[in-house]
Amino acid sequence: MHADLSRSTFRPERHYSAVVAQQGRVQLDADLNEQAAIQLHQARTLAADLIGRHGGPGGPGRVTGFRIEYVGGKLDIDTLRIHGGRYYVDGILCDADRPAPGIPVPDEDDKEQPAPGTGAHWDYWNQPDGFRDPENPADKLPSPAQSPFVVYLKVWERAVCAAEDPALREVALGAALPDTAVRAKVVWQVLPLSLSALDIEGSEPSAQAVRDAFEKWAKAQAEPSARLAARSERPEHADEDPCLVRPDARYRGPENQLYRVEIHAGGEAKDATFKWSRENGSVVFPVDELDGTWVQLATLGLDGKLDLDVGDHVEFTDTAYASRLEPRPLLRVEELDLPGRRVRLSAEPDPHVGRLPHLHPFLRRWDHHEGPKQKGRTTALKGGAVPVVEGQWLPLEDGVEVYFAKGGGYRTGDHWLIPARTATGSVEWPADAARRPLLQAPAGIARHFAPLALVQGEGSTVDLRFAFGPLGTDIPAADRAALDAEALAAREEQAAEADPSGGRSQTTAAAEAAVEGDD
């Protein structure tokens, strides 16, 4: 996730059960974050083991959460009603309950108190993390009259910072101080999928056939095929001055960094691009106003490292497009107006992005300026991002290099984290015994999928969800034989307490006690 981190240390394959703090030691964000990740991993693994791949609480034949209802001709535009409740996908809790709207204090002229809305369900167009656009043809629902379609749940997790949710910032700290912690948010989106995408022929498949085909499709979508390795190599033009960087250091940066290499445009290598940041993509600037290519910012940064400069590439986005994972061209900063907190971009941002203040538009800075050099020539950027080149080492900066394995498939948002440390003059990356960097799958984004319904038409929906019941049940009443046995045992216990000798004479009991004493 995009956050100002030192590094990410959670490794599920190491099977650590807790992070134990020691007295008098430095406190690191990585330790606290690893503890949270361990607990989250344990909770979600337990839930998945008990529930299965997906399922929701309910009774026999009934699930409460994410019931889908198709509504066609009754409205101007087809939609889906997403009924409230909970559902679990790979152990991740998804909550579709819609909060009731607040009731404002009435004005003196108001005679009646307005009744709050019911908030019974979401629909396809206003789901909280879907951000579907009725004017976008790609977002419209298929027509079940032409062919049935599957409705499924897509689940993933992303970071939300104070630029997107100003309520996270403690105003008492003042504008001169940075924000504190970011939040991890589970994003769920209800989306349509054609039967042809599942390789299903015919218009009336069984529910189990759809589930089986969907599991095959979901597995292919969830497993990333891209692989990357990283290393640090001392550049040929490295500065020899030992007062700046150790002469033998391979990483030549003056400070510790957490590099983030993130796929911008997905697809095959010939179409894919990437962007990188030395601050894990955490440098963001809330946007107050947009006027053509001029952007009015709430702040220009806290210091020289975290500000904007001419030549920087930025991503103009907002909460909606951060959740949709749809890349837009990166723009170049052409001019700065420091007194006015304004920047002029190389082009006007996409008209569908950042125009609504309640979606909190912002700029995210990336630190690449040009593509890697190939055969002595600098590779041109594509849409403001760096083209993916497989099978060779690509330099980023200060000796940090990355390598994309051949034959990869790339998805927008996939990313790798590379800690670089001045103490070792190197980057932290797994290697084999011969110190060769190992190819790694992306650190994220982990995508999860579950089928919800097969829509065949108005009022004709096949439920594809699974249900599980509560573990607690009534205590069954005991039968007559068990009750008689309990009564007999109680009488024998009472008799033993009333006569400790067990029915023997006092003389015999005294003699036995004397023998035991001699022993």
Question: Main traits of this protein?
Answer:
single chain; 519 residues; alpha+beta; six-stranded antiparallel beta barrel; five-stranded mixed beta sheet; globular
Helix content: 10-25%
Tell me how many strands there are.
28
* Inertia-based shape: globular
Strand order of the largest sheet: 13-14-17-16-15-18
Number of helices: 5
Backbone structural class: alpha+beta
Largest sheet: 6 strands, antiparallel, barrel
Please mark out the parts with pLDDT under 50 across 5 or more consecutive residues, or reply none: none
Distance between the termini: 75 Å
Mean pLDDT: 89
- Whole-number radius of gyration? 31 Å
Note the beta-strand portion: 25-35%
What's the helix and strand layout?
Layout (H helix, E strand, L loop, with lengths): L28 H23 L2 E6 L2 E2 L4 E4 L7 E5 L2 E4 L2 E4 L25 E3 L25 E12 L22 E12 L12 H16 L5 E5 L24 E7 L9 E5 L6 E8 L2 E4 L15 E5 L1 H6 L6 E7 L4 E4 L16 E5 L6 E2 L2 E2 L7 E2 L5 E5 L2 E5 L10 E7 L4 E2 L20 E10 L2 E4 L3 E2 L11 H19 L7 H13 L1
Parallel strand pairs: 1-28
Antiparallel strand pairs: 1-2, 1-5, 3-4, 4-7, 5-6, 8-9, 8-26, 10-23, 11-12, 11-24, 12-21, 13-14, 13-18, 14-17, 15-16, 15-18, 16-17, 19-20, 22-23, 24-25, 26-27
